[in-house]
Amino acid sequence: MTDPATIDAAQAEADTRRWLERAVIGLNLCPFAKAVHVKAQIHYAVHLPAEEAGLMDALLSEANDLAAVDAAVRDTTLLIAPNTLADFLDFNDFLGRAERKLSRAGFDGVFQLASFHPQFQFAGTEADDIENATNRAPYPTLHLLREDSVSRAVEAFPGAEAIFERNIETLEALGPDGWAALDVGPGSARP
Fold first, then answer.
1. Which of 74, 78, 85 lies closest to 44, judged by CA?
2. Residue 78 bridge partners (DSSP)
3. ∠ CA 101-93-49 to the nearest 5 degrees?
4. How many CB atoms neighbour CB 139 within 10 A?
5. Is residue 184 classed as helix, strand or coil in its secondary structure?
6. Is 81 in contact with 142 (CB distance < 8 Å)?
7. Alpha helix stretches (DSSP H) within 68-162
8. Three-state DSSP state, 45
9. What residues does 144 pair with on adjacent strands?
10. What is the dihedral of CA 122, 123, 126, 128, to 10 degrees?
11. Which residues contact 6 (CB under 8 A, 6 or more apart)?
């Protein structure tokens, strides 16, 4: 495995694509991901510096860029930050500030901000509980989703409210060894 401090943009993007293909799409954790992936409507952006302020600026820039492009061309953006906010609690605090910043920038009702982190942990769980893997990515990742696209996807997918429970069942059946066998961590892909 590669040391996260030495991850370059090509490696971060390759690892994230591998995670998306093997875990998110491969396990069907998000039934909406495959369509935008197959249509190449996912934009991958990588923020390499360690500064939080720079990540906030990058997020706003990516939101502006996403708003300026038709959804048929770019439906969603994954902003990958391999060298920033390695601590999950710091990342979680950052998310609150990021949502407020996006709202103040006029994106309330336009975008949703989802998040993934290698140390993601649901409240009330232990760090090694397999259900936490539903929101674990190789690196801290901010996901900008178009509200309109999310609404259309939920309308077209019966039982969307059950996705979370189904994902936990999937991961419990897979188990920690099965998750590890997916090999979706930092440095796992060839750029």
1. 78
2. 44, 143
3. 75
4. 27
5. coil
6. yes
7. 88-102, 147-156
8. strand
9. 77, 113
10. 10
11. none
Residues 6 or more apart whose CB falls under 8 angstroms from that of 32 comprise 150, 153, 157
pLDDT at 57 over 60: yes
- Measured distance CA(166)–CA(43) in Å, rounded: 27
Of 24, 11, 108, nearest to 63 (Cα)? 108
How is residue 180 written in tokens?
A: 């590890």
CA-to-CA separations, 7 to 1, 37, 85, 122, 142, in angstroms, rounded:
10, 23, 14, 27, 17
Q: Which residue has the tokens 């039982």?
A: 159
pTM of the entire structure? 0.94
Alpha helices (runs of H) in 39-134, residue ranges in sequence order: 52-67, 88-102
Position 102: which residue type?
Answer: L
Classify residue 109 as left (phi > 0), alpha (psi -120 to 50) or beta: left
CA torsion angle 124 126 132 133 (round to 10): -170
Q: Which amino acid, one-letter code, is at 140?
A: P
Grouping H, G, I as helix, E, B as strand and the rest as coil, residue 79 is strand
pLDDT at residue 108, as a whole number: 95
Instruction: State the pLDDT at residue 5.
Output: 56
Task: Check residue 1 and give its pLDDT.
Answer: 45
CB count, 10 Å around CB of 166? 13
Confirm if 19 and 36 have CB atoms less than 8 A apart.
no
Q: Which two tokens stand for residue 29?
A: 């954790």
